[in-house]
Amino acid sequence: MLRSIMITGANSGLGKEAARQFALRPEVERIVLACRDESRAAEAQLWLEESTGRSIFEVLIVDVSDPDSARAAVDRMQEPVDALVLNAGGMGGQKPLGITSQGVTNMFAANMLGHSILTEEMIRRGLIKQAVLYAGSEAARGVKKMNIKRPALKTFSSEEFTQVINGTYDGKLDDMANYGLVKLMASLWMSTMARKHQDLQFVTMSPGGTSGTKVMDKLPMGMKLMFKYVMMPIMMPLMGMVHGVEVGAKRYVDGLTDPAYLSGHFYASKESTVTGPIIDQGDIFPLLYDVRVQDNAWKAIHAFHPKVEAAVFA
Ligand SMILES: NC(=O)c1ccc[n+]([C@@H]2O[C@H](COP(=O)([O-])OP(=O)(O)OC[C@H]3O[C@@H](n4cnc5c(N)ncnc54)[C@H](OP(=O)(O)O)[C@@H]3O)[C@@H](O)[C@H]2O)c1
Question: What CATH homologous superfamily does 4-211+242-305 map to?
């Protein structure tokens, strides 16, 4: 039973709605809103208190694209949580393939780098008691109907993953292909984590095609016009490929509370869609459970942890 939950990116969209749904469960006594901006976090906290009638929310400031911020946030934690939801992220802002001072793409930084440091540092200090859930995406295994190709590298070696992380991969990745690969790497990392930490549960869960969030607002202009004004409001509903934020966030809640979801596995919609029933993605993309590929992703990600982390987790 989960009594305390930390959610990254909890001031908006799926993270905020997941916080609301968890708060409606009477056994939940504490929810940590891990957000990067103090005023947006305070606004979300107020809304959550008013809409649930519960005063169980606290704020932890963290920018998950910044390793120092992730480590500093863990330093400030005073109590462990039962579960950690790694939800913050999206398409990497205005310049998804721009390179940060850590030498990684903005896409990788926002979705993975700080999350991996936050998680591993929390585990090292005994600050996660039961489970971790990562917000995956159907883009990690491709969606034919939406013209999103299945991520394809030549060998899925740690060297190739490294090239995706630092933006030097020569396979001409567009923003969506890069997003799919980063979400794929995250799911592979979660599977390795599940093998390394068998006392904890690690579930990757895609919220599915979800409207009512701010993910489209932050896209580069061309993609924003396409996704915010054409795909999301017109094309995807016509194709039956979108659901509301309540449905997407419920997938997170189910992923952490339903024992049918197995540690180390990646769950999302059926092959041809991004909504509806959830299936184990290994059934349609066996590479996900290739232990060698999982470990290649883990290794590539670790090479970008600040030195002290790499030594601790080697
Ligand atoms: N919506 C979909 O259809 C869909 C489908 C599959 C997967 N997902 C995944 O679901 C997750 C949530 O997306 P959403 O649709 O709810 O989008 P959203 O409304 O834009 O929410 C994203 C949240 O992440 C936070 N965030 C972004 N970068 C951050 C950083 N560096 N440090 C801390 N917080 C950061 C944002 O904070 P600010 O408000 O400060 O920017 C915001 O709270 C993402 O990981 C996304 O990839 C979404």
Answer: NAD(P)-binding Rossmann-like Domain (3.40.50.720)
Question: Each residue of 301-311: pLDDT tens digit?
Answer: 999 998 654 45
24-39 pLDDT, tens digit per residue, is 999 999 999 999 999 9
Q: What is the DSSP letter of 210?
A: B
* Coil, strand or helix at 4: strand
- Paired strand residues for 59: 33
- Tell me the best of 36, 102, 250 to mutate to test the pocket of ligand 1, counting ligand atoms within 8 Å of each CB and taking the most: 36
Q: What's the CA gap between 178 and 93, in Å, rounded? A: 13
Q: Which residue has the tokens 């999982």?
A: 294
User: Hey, where are the domains in the chain?
Assistant: 4-211+242-305
Q: Where are the alpha helices (DSSP H) in 125-174?
A: 158-166
- The candidate with the shortest Cα–Cα distance to 3, out of 32, 33, 30, 23, is 30
pLDDT band at 281 (very low <50, low <70, confident <90, very high): very high
Res. 204: pLDDT tops 80: yes
Task: Determine how many CB atoms are found less than 10 A away from the CB of residue 234.
Answer: 10
CA of 13 from ligand 1 middle (Å) equals 7
Name the closest-CA residue to atom 6, ligand 1: 137
- Predicted local confidence at residue 223, as pLDDT: 81
Q: What are phi and psi of 203, to 5 degrees?
A: -120, 130
What are the distances in angstroms from CA 67 to CA 21, 192, 216, 243, 306?
29, 20, 25, 33, 7
Segment 131-152, tens digit of pLDDT: 999 999 999 999 998 889 999 9
Distance CA(164)–CA(152), nearest Å, equals 11
Nearest to 247 by CA among 216, 214, 277, 280: 277
